[in-house]
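User: What would this chain look like folded?
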Amino acid sequence: MRIVFELEPDDLQRFREATARAVQRVACAEECDIIDGAKHALDQLPIGTAPGFVRRQLCEVQRLILMVEDEAWGLPREDREQVLQALAYFSDPEDMIPDHIEVIGLIDDAIMLALMLRRLRHTLEAYADFCAFRLALGPPPGDHAGRLAHAGALARQRQALHARMHERGRVESEEAAS
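Assistant: Here's the prediction, encoded as structure tokens.
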């Protein structure tokens, strides 16, 4: 069965307010605490009894954590803060619908994640491309010159993908404004 609903402006406003609270939590917390909180929530939440839509969105939390922890990716600060906001909202057990309420407790988390993932889609696409490039490149060679060449190739790819994700975000913002 497929259930579709439309968020009205008042509904979106509630999510914006929840995002603002997450922004405040990010500003007041250490990055490692936010990431640890998200990991803890993934381990403790009743994900097995959650609807499939919710479970699919929660898998994206794992991808966000991997991306923000990936030192080779070097996520730029502004993008990193957006990811941390999503993780902060997710790890708050007393968000719009308390997480302990069976079946529906994680629906607001899934909706918020869907909204934030939509905003982060260019970043996630670039990260997926970076991971594919790194995998195709293979492990760094054992010799010094080979390691330098490997690191240089990763750095050039990372730089190009960061530029691409920011350009796509800029173009999208300009299109939305017009």
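The helical segments are 9-28, 31-44, 52-69, 77-91, 107-119, 121-137, 144-177. If you want, I can go into more detail on any region.
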